[in-house]
Structure formats: C-alpha cells, structure tokens
Design goal:
Blueprint lengths: L2 H6 L11 E4 L2 E5 L12 E5 L2 E4 L5 H11 L25 E5 L15 E5 L26 H11 L6 H9 L26 E2 L3 E2 L29 E7 L36 E5 L19 E4 L7 E2 L3 E2 L5
Parallel strand pairs: 9-12
Antiparallel strand pairs: 1-4, 2-3, 4-13, 5-6, 7-8, 9-10, 10-11
C-alpha cells in the first residue's frame, strides 16, 4: 500500500482479503445527461471508503465456493411453477439464457433474435450443456442470479457494492469522464476493454481478441487499479432498480447513494410479472457502438433477480480492513 493511500485511509492498514483495492470514497457526479434516459439526471453523490475486489469473481473462485458448500445455483434448479403461472413445462426446466449470434442482420427491436433459453446452460456449462469451464477457470463466472451472488458474498464474508459505490470505483478518480480510462473509446487505436467491434449482433471483427468473455485482467486497470470495470461481463450491485429521476427521497439525488425500494423495482411495462430488479453496471463483451453503448461508468441496466444470463457476473466489496 502506498503512502497516499495511507493518508486517505490511515486506519486501513491491510486489505481484509487478497486482491482487494482500497477505494477512498468521496463525492462525485453520478449518472449522465448525454446518453440513455435511465442514466439521467446526473446528480451529486457521496460514498464512504471501502475495499473492492480487483477482479470479477472467476470460475475458479466460484468453484471453490460450490465445492465447500454444495451450493446449487438457480439455473441448475427447476423453477417453481407457482412463481410462473401459465408457463409451459419446458420453460420450468433448469436453464439459463445464452447469446446466440444470428447469421445476418435481424430486427434490432426484438432481442429474442439473439437471446435463447437453453436447458442445461449454467455456470458450469456457460455456452450450453455441451460446453464446460475447463479452459475458462480464470474467466468471470456467469449464469449467476441474484440469490447466487448473495450466497457467495455471505459465504466469503463480503458484500455486493451499491450502484453508487460501483460507479465511483469504476470512474477511478476521473470526474465526468466518458469511459473508465478517459474520453476516447480506443485511445491511440488501443482496445481498452472486451466489447463488440463490428455490427451487433451478427458480425464481430474481434479487434480486442475475444469472441466471448476474456480472462479477468486482460485489459488495463483503471485509476484505482480495478480491472474490467467496463465490458467483459455486466456486474450485479446491491441496489434495487429505480429511475434516477424517480428516486424515493429528495436527499437521494444529492448525497445519499441509496433510496430505491424492492416494491419500486418491478418493471411497470410488465404488470403480470412482479419480479423485482437489481441494478447491474459495466456493460459486457456484447456492448457495441451500433446497439448498446453501455461500456461506460454512468450506464446501468435493470436485471430481474430470478434471471441468469451468459454475460452477467459480479465482484464484491468489504467495508472493514485488518489492522
């Protein structure tokens, strides 16, 4: 730990777990007025200091959790038919959602043109039942629903970051920057994250070298020493989803990073599906300039807590240090 970190946080003399980075906390401008409407309005938020995982949780680390606890993820269990009245029996089998690249241009308003529910897809089989993680142990774990990441965090003794904590950490000290590394997507022509190059969803030119997920740490870290805070996989946060413009309490648009409630987090466009949603951040290897420019710290996505998917993972934080 360098001297500047000690001055910012003199009580944090030792990280509570390996490969964690001290995030000093402070006040910052959260959100953006320049991109997708759910990012607005930009508003001042303050967060306290905390420790954050340097990398997203990998298949290697999640495997250790499963081996020691016998935990079975949501995607590996059949769904309860009482939770999904009217669902066809085939939809209740253990399954998860996988990206399948179409052969050519498709209707971009219908995401079912590239997202498919696949029986037998889960964290052990990230690209379908015939796949495995044998050669992906240092890739981020995917196909983990909210209760899965919550169980992992509890087991290891950590927590999930709030949306504000995650965004503050992702910015790496760059106030108002477009990306976690600055204002250019590819400075000097260099790919800074695992994203999609070409025409999504059917043509990926692979200029970054990866078709799917990349091993954690494959791209440069941000100003705080955190890797993959843009692209590769979306990351769960602890906050229930709510529009920035509809935050419950006026104080939350100023200096309070919390505020949304479980009840307010359901999707109003689907009144028949009262599944609450959490905020996810960071974008993924599927984000592309022509479709989803969400590889930015201000970007956010609402994710139903009962849903796992092939480009969503997580990282943890800790609020106390040793020493």
């Amino acid at each position: 730990m360098n001297e500047s970190t000690k001055l910012i946080n003199p009580s944090a003399t030792e990280a509570p777990f390996p490969d964690m980075v001290w995030i000093p906390g402070g006040e910052f401008l959260m959100g953006s007025e320049l991109h997708y409407p759910e990012e607005a309005p930009a508003h001042r938020v303050r967060v306290d200091g905390f420790w954050m995982d340097r990398f997203t949780v990998t298949n290697r680390e999640f495997s250790r959790f499963v081996e020691e606890t016998g935990y079975v993820t949501l995607a590996e269990r059949p769904a309860n038919p009482d939770d999904y009245p009217g669902a066809l029996p085939g939809m209740l089998a253990p399954s998860s959602t996988i990206f399948v690249k179409p052969s050519g241009p498709v209707d971009m308003h219908n995401h079912y043109n590239w997202w498919v529910y696949v029986k037998g897809a889960n964290w052990r089989h990230p690209r379908g039942p015939a796949s495995s993680i044998k050669k992906l142990v240092d890739h981020p774990v995917v196909h983990v629903a909210w209760e899965d990441v919550e169980a992992y965090a509890k087991w290891i003794g950590k927590e999930l970051p709030t949306e504000a904590e995650w965004e503050f950490a992702a910015r790496g000290g760059l106030e108002g920057a477009e990306f976690v590394w600055g204002d250019e997507l590819t400075p000097g022509g260099k790919q800074m994250a695992n994203t999609w190059q070409g025409e999504f969803p059917y043509r990926n030119t692979l200029e970054d070298g990866f078709e799917y997920t990349a091993p954690v740490g494959s791209f440069p870290p941000n100003g705080y020493g955190l890797f993959d805070m843009a692209g590769n996989v979306w990351q769960w946060t602890a906050d229930w989803y709510q529009e920035h413009g509809r935050i419950d309490s006026p104080c939350c648009t100023a200096l309070n990073p919390r505020g949304a409630s479980r009840e307010a987090s359901v999707d109003p466009r689907q009144p028949g599906a009262q599944i609450p949603r959490k905020v996810t951040k960071g974008g993924s290897h599927l984000c592309a300039p022509n479709y989803c420019r969400r590889y930015r710290p201000a970007a956010r996505m609402a994710q139903p807590v009962d849903t796992s998917i092939s480009h969503l993972g997580f990282r943890c934080i800790a609020r106390e240090a040793k020493g």
